[in-house]
């Protein structure tokens, strides 16, 4: 356990590095250190002494094998979340994790105190990796050299003492000699004593010079050996990195070779349109185990038509109308832009940037705009409204179950634009907003605000003149795992229809970007969505199947069952999240009738499926415009009278869209550094308030406030009002300066 309060003074010793600095505290204890992708965090013994932080595999290794050392004089200390801290120096980084918050705070205090006291320590360039143990011959040779250096240093100390002793005696003899005024017998004796002591002093000085020369020769010899050893380790590490990258390429080649033989699928099912464009030889497949279907559907046959005709007639006309592809979202009353500048073709070594980011949260990784798309996360949230017509149709449904089908299709449609979108949206700055006023076009107004910096969280509110209101509070939790990036949205989406009062709540699934190191990037959506109508207790369980090459199902498959409050199934939903969704009314069922296990074996007989929703085609030249949809192309279009915090005014995002990526990178670095400075100021003010016993003034969003939902019990950010009134009067005096 770390005990930074137990401070002792370290006296200079021959074996103590940096022994010129005295009075520095020591701290010892166990910490978890990130080693590599295969082993993850490993327990290591850390020792903080004389401004140097060293670590060992075990306490017993302190006598002979140090695994790495950092000089705190040149080390940047970054405190993360959940007991994490990062120490960076000279291009090397230690990713550490304490066992508890208290332990983490004690280490942070000890490290910061040691850093403040080590401004004169030299920089030590020991390797920071967890290398394997050195050979016995190397260890013996190193120990022998250290013992020789210690012996020589002791000789120097002895000579120093003798020089001081003989020098003092010589001074006394010279003083006594000066007191004599005539040639006497006493003078002769004194002169003889002076000559003897001068001879001793000369001999001792010569011994001192010889000992210094020996020590210097040994030190230079060992310095050259250690320099060669360090250079060898660096070359080995570089070779290992190249080997790992080559192995990743070979692994990808083996996967492609395995996929070369065509697989014959029964049933003659045709591939969905667009498969050829987004799957090629470089695609990496997620080999998930194929799960048993939750249900079996059988389309009704001709001899059942009489019995089913009444069921057809009972269906709502709103839901029975097929989704018409003849009405694309381009029918706008105001002409909006249909293209943006083509994306520049800049090459970038992805592995050289991402290899040091394994295990870190994606929002905390500083990245160039080469990995981004010219939209912010607030605009990506707003893009969920691309198929708002589904909610307009749902508002006119008389049946809550049919309304549930349309709401479910809307929840799936929000993922349709992500199939090619491998770029990372810009992380919004704290206080950044984004409005989308489409009253004249689609009858709704949308507002987003970044309400938290770490963890990154955004609040979204939409109100429609066509009978519905939607709001959501989403926190993005993202991790880089080496070969893929996982993005896990936390929070719920709320939707309420004005006429019926039906209140729907659902979440989001996990998005995964594959082939980060080698191959073509591709995105998959996987997980479950449970949509609940808190007014009628109707539910819909949607399952997003993870992509698997060995599965016979269609890629990107989504299935669902719509049930009433008594768990009776009424509709079957099926389709893909990147293309379309169908619905089919259940007219008969057989098999299990009670409990989840029994329901897994249920066979549903349905009417022929009908189209519920279909994705609009991408605009021309979309592959050179970040694969943006028609709506996405308009999201960053300049608008008059927007708030000064609006994402459209963000300079780095605007420069990236124009193709000026170098200038965009400079602006992005400036904005992020300013945000980090503001965060440190808020933390310092909070610490000062705690020390003085004052009330802590936490950051409060401008347009949203946290409330508890009476139906679901969730606590989330909801719109407090005032934005559109401020826009009407052009009074933005409350807005902070974020750009």
TrEMBL record:
Residues annotated as domain PH: 24-116
Coiled-coil regions listed: 230-257
Region Disordered, annotated ranges: 1-20, 257-281
Membrane topology summary: Peripheral membrane protein
Subcellular location field: Membrane
The keyword Phosphoprotein appears for this protein: yes
Pfam families (alphabetical): Oxysterol_BP, PH
Biased composition (Polar residues): 7-20
GO molecular function: cholesterol binding
GO biological process: lipid transport
Highest taxon above the source species: Eukaryota
Compositionally biased region (Acidic residues): 272-281
Record's keyword annotation contains Nuclease: no
GO CC annotation: cytosol; perinuclear endoplasmic reticulum; plasma membrane
Primary localization class, coarse: membrane
Family assignment from sequence similarity: Belongs to the OSBP family.
Protein name as it appears in the record: Oxysterol-binding protein
Organism for this UniProt entry: Clupea harengus
Gene of this entry: LOC105895556
